[in-house]
Amino acid sequence: MARYVTLIRFTEQGARNLSASTARAQAFREAAQRSGVTVEAQYWTAGGCDGILILNAVASNQALHCLADLTAQGNIRTETMQAFDASEFSAITAR
Predict the structure, then answer these.
(1) Domain with 28 in it: what CATH number?
(2) Residue-level pLDDT, tens digit, the chain, 95 residues
(3) What is the extent of the structural domain holding 46?
(4) What SS3 class is residue 64?
(5) How many domains is the chain built from?
(6) Contacts of 50 (CB under 8 A, 6+ apart)
(7) What predicted TM-score, i.e. pTM, was given to this entire model?
């Protein structure tokens, strides 16, 4: 199963509706689960990003489809990257 780390930044719309952020996060978690994507973690952050998602999915298109649906709501912008634990990275770099 592939793991993805997504950095989240609120749009102006998302910032105006900040108090609904946790409800939107719960709705995303439920929608992702219905799509076969596991939300391993959701965090709100202070600094350059407003939040972080850690997702697990069998196929990249599952995770990316969920994130596309999320961003289409207009509350956030995302930057997503695939993440590897030590054993996965060792397998990638082994020759």
Answers:
(1) 3.30.70.920
(2) 899 999 999 999 999 999 999 999 999 999 999 999 999 999 999 999 999 999 999 988 899 999 999 999 999 999 999 999 999 999 999 97
(3) 2-93
(4) helix
(5) 1
(6) 8, 9, 10, 14, 44, 76
(7) 0.90
